[in-house]
């Protein structure tokens, strides 16, 4: 993993930003815990149950392949394709009812313990924006867990593509600029180096890495970036970012 804190004379202080945009799943929502729970019916029927790290890696590969091949599909359809791919890989017979429950499971995935309080603190100082790789209906179910009043919500369904497609980040910048905030005053906050930091930095955005997998091997359900990426800020949790970004 190519990541290190990059602090230069041109790096603003956190308090200089006016808006924070967030990846949701993996950053605000503990999607790996949610995914593993939702995949359990499939895993329970596997003749040889794969290790957890292998499950997450297989999920990440299947999800990326489905999103690249079917960028216009709503996220539940992507999850349905992922289920079918994993069932084939693990030699488990497909069960349509189980597959449908998995495809609709997004709203059941839990928030990280620090998320709700951190968002409340950040909302008092910054405009908050969501840039998520799901559909509007799935995010609406998740938003009840976040208890946050976001100023803008941008989903893959709105854009017609999935991150790391640059179109998603162009849509983010356009939305923030429509609020009267220049891109230089926007900080993108995310866990995934691959889906978020590489494409965000490619269009000139500053980024903050919430390293939710610190101390864990591999990338879990998130692909590893092929390009070198150096986030401008690194925090272990969203709460730590709020501690740093909400100082007077």
Total beta strands: 6
- CATH C-level of the largest domain: Alpha Beta
Q: Provide the CATH superfamily of the largest domain.
A: HAD superfamily/HAD-like
For the biggest β-sheet, the strand order reads 3-2-1-4-5-6
In the predicted model, the low-confidence regions spanning at least 5 consecutive residues are 1-9
Distance between the termini: 34 Å
List the helices and strands and how they pair.
Layout: E1 19-22, H1 31-44, H2 52-69, H3 75-89, H4 96-103, H5 115-123, E2 127-132, H6 136-146, E3 152-155, H7 156-159, H8 166-178, E4 186-190, H9 193-202, E5 206-210, E6 233-235, H10 238-245
Parallel strand pairs: 1-2, 1-4, 2-3, 4-5, 5-6
Can you put this structure into words, describing what you see?
The protein has helices at residues 31-44, 52-69, 75-89, 96-103, 115-123, 136-146, 156-159, 166-178, 193-202, 238-245; strands at 19-22, 127-132, 152-155, 186-190, 206-210, 233-235. It has 248 residues and is of the alpha/beta class.
